C-alpha cells in the first residue's frame, strides 16, 4: 500500500471496533483554539468519541487578543470550543503566542497522569508547552504523532543556522511514531530530516468550505449584490488580496503591477483588499496615486471575520498572495479563494504553490517581480468566472480527507 498518496486507508473492522471503544485514548496538545484547526478536532471527536480531548495552553483566541499583524484585537466569530472535549491549562507567560516561553508546560504532567492517553498529538514545536508535552510523553512512554506546517523554503537561513536546525529536527523527529504532512514542502522537510517515508501520511491543509451550501444562483447573487453596493461594475476584473496588510505579505505590489498591464485590462481593473494591518495607510495613499494616474479604483474592506468572508471572496476574480520569503509556509487564503472559484496567483515564496502550481487557474510569479505578476494577471484575465473550477481537486485538501487519514492511520498504528 502506498501510504503517501491520496488513497483510502483500510482498517480491519473488528480491530477498529476494539480499539475505538476499548483501548485508544487520544490527547491533542494545541497552543490555543485556532479557527482553521478546530473543525478537525470536532471531526476527530466524532470518530474517537469521549476518548478524544484537546488540551490548550491558552484561551487567548476565545477571550480576544491583540494581533500585531492585523493591528487590532481579534476575537473570531465562530464557536471555537464546541463539538469536542477540551481543557484549557492557562499556561500563558506574559503576552500569549509572543515567543518560545510565552506558553509554559504547566499542568501537562497532571493531565497525563489523570487521563493516561494511549497517544498524544502535537500541532507544532514552537513553544515550551510543545516540548514539555513531547519530553513527558517520552518519559511516560506514550507514542506521539505530529501535524505542523514546518518546511525549508519559506525563510532564508545562514549555513550555520541551517546546520544546527537540521541537527535539532533530526533529533526531535526520532521521538515521533507518526507524522502527518500538510503539503508537499512539508513532506520534503521531514524526508530531508531523517523521517522514513513509511511514517509519513497526508493530512493536507484545508479550510472549511463555506460555499458548498450555496447554489450558483446564490453565489452570483452575493457577488452581484456586493458589487452593486460598492459601485463596482459587474464587468470589472476585481483583483484582490486577503490577509494581514504587513510587509511580509507585500500587498503593495498589486499597485506596482498595474503599470505593466495592457491598457485593455487596466481599464477594467478594480483592486480589493480584505484585511487590516500596519501598511493600511500606506496602501490607501498608493490607491489615490493609482486612481489619479490610471483611473483605477481600490476598495478596503477592512478586517473581515470568518462568517462574513464568502461574499468578499465571491466578489473577487483573481486573488493574489504576493508574500516575501519570510515564513509563508502555506497560505490558507488560497484554499478559501479556490473554494469560491477565484483564480489565484502566489509568489514563489508561498508554500502551497508547489501543490497547486499545475492547476488550470493557478499561477506563480517570481517574488517581488511586478512585471512577472502583471503577466500572470494578464494570462488569467481571459477566464470566465467559474465557481467550481477547483472543486474536484480540492477534495484532497478538505476536512474529510484529513480526518480520514489521521483517524485511519492512528488506528492502523495500534493494529500493527
SSE inventory with pairings:
Layout lengths: L12 H11 L2 E5 L7 H11 L3 E5 L3 H4 L1 E3 L4 E3 L10 E4 L19 H8 L3 E4 L5 H13 L3 E3 L12 H15 L4 E4 L2 H9 L7 E3 L13 H14 L7 E6 L10 H6 L4 H4 L2 E6 L5 H15 L2 E4 L8 H7 L2 E4 L10 H8 L3 E5 L5 H4 L5 E4 L4 H11 L18 H17 L1
Parallel strand pairs: 1-2, 1-6, 2-5, 6-7, 7-8, 8-9, 10-11, 10-13, 11-12, 13-14, 14-15
Antiparallel strand pairs: 3-4
Helix pairs in contact: 1-16, 2-16, 8-12
Summarize the structure.
Helices cover 38% and strands 15% of the residues. With 416 residues, the protein is of the alpha/beta class.
Protein described:
This is Glycosyl transferase family 1 domain-containing protein. Keywords: Membrane, Transmembrane, Transmembrane helix. Pfam families: Glycos_transf_1. It comes from Persicitalea jodogahamensis. The structure is a single chain. With 416 residues, this protein is an alpha/beta fold. The protein folds into two domains: 13-206 and 398-415, Glycogen Phosphorylase B (Rossmann fold, 3-Layer(aba) Sandwich), CATH 3.40.50; 216-393, Rossmann fold (3-Layer(aba) Sandwich), CATH 3.40.50.2000. It is 38% helix and 15% strand. The chain contains 16 helices and 15 strands. It has helices at residues 13-23, 38-48, 60-63, 108-115, 128-140, 159-173, 184-192, 216-229, 253-258, 263-266, 280-294, 309-315, 332-339, 353-356, 370-380, 399-415; strands spanning 26-30, 52-56, 65-67, 72-74, 85-88, 119-122, 144-146, 178-181, 200-202, 237-242, 269-274, 297-300, 318-321, 343-347, 362-365. Helix 7 (184-192) links the parallel strand 8 (178-181) and strand 9. Helix 1 (13-23) packs across helix 16 (399-415). The relative contact order is 0.13. Mean pLDDT is 93; it is low at 1-7.
Amino acid at each position: 500500500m502506498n501510504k503517501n498518496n491520496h488513497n483510502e486507508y483500510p482498517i480491519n473492522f473488528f480491530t477498529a471496533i476494539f480499539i475505538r471503544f476499548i483501548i485508544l485514548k487520544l490527547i491533542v496538545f494545541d497552543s490555543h483554539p485556532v479557527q482553521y484547526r478546530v473543525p478537525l478536532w470536532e471531526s476527530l471527536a466524532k470518530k474517537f468519541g469521549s476518548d478524544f480531548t484537546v488540551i490548550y495552553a491558552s484561551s487567548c483566541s476565545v477571550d480576544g487578543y491583540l494581533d500585531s499583524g492585523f493591528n487590532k484585537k481579534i476575537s473570531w466569530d465562530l464557536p471555537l470550543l464546541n463539538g469536542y472535549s477540551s481543557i484549557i491549562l492557562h499556561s500563558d507567560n506574559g503576552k500569549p503566542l509572543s515567543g518560545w516561553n510565552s506558553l509554559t508546560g504547566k499542568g501537562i504532567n497532571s493531565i497525563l497522569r489523570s487521563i493516561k492517553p494511549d497517544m498524544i498529538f502535537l500541532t507544532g514545536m514552537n513553544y515550551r508547552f510543545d516540548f514539555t508535552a513531547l519530553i513527558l510523553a517520552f518519559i511516560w512512554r506514550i507514542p506521539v504523532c505530529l501535524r505542523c506546517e514546518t518546511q525549508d523554503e519559506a525563510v532564508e537561513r545562514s549555513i550555520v543556522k541551517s546546520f544546527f536546525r537540521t541537527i535539532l529536527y533530526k533529533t526531535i523527529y526520532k521521538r515521533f511514531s507518526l507524522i502527518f504532512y500538510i503539503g508537499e514542502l512539508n513532506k520534503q522537510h521531514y524526508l530531508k530530516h531523517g523521517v522514513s517515508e513509511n511514517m509519513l501520511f497526508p493530512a493536507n491543509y484545508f479550510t472549511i468550505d463555506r460555499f458548498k451550501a450555496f447554489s450558483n444562483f446564490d453565489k452570483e447573487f452575493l457577488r452581484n449584490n456586493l458589487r452593486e453596493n460598492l459601485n463596482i461594475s459587474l464587468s470589472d476584473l476585481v483583483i484582490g488580496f486577503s490577509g494581514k496588510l504587513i510587509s511580509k505579505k507585500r500587498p503593495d505590489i498589486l499597485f506596482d503591477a498595474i503599470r505593466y498591464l495592457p491598457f485593455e485590462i487596466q481599464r477594467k481593473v478594480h483592486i480589493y483588499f480584505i484585511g487590516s494591518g500596519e501598511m493600511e495607510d500606506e496602501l490607501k495613499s498608493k490607491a489615490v496615486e493609482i486612481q489619479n494616474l490610471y483611473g483605477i479604483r481600490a476598495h478596503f474592506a477592512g478586517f473581515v471575520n470568518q462568517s462574513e468572508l464568502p461574499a468578499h471572496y465571491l466578489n473577487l476574480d483573481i486573488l493574489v498572495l504576493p508574500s516575501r520569503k519570510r515564513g509563508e509556509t502555506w497560505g490558507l487564503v488560497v484554499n478559501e479563494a479556490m473554494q469560491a472559484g477565484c483564480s489565484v496567483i502566489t509568489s514563489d515564496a508561498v508554500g502551497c504553490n508547489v501543490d497547486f502550481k499545475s492547476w488550470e487557474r493557478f499561477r506563480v510569479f517570481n517574488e517581488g517581480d511586478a512585471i512577472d505578476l502583471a503577466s500572470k494577471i494578464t494570462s488569467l484575465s481571459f477566464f470566465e468566472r467559474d465557481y467550481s473550477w477547483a472543486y474536484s481537486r480540492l477534495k484532497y485538501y478538505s476536512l474529510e480527507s484529513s480526518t480520514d487519514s489521521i483517524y485511519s492511520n492512528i488506528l492502523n498504528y495500534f493494529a500493527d
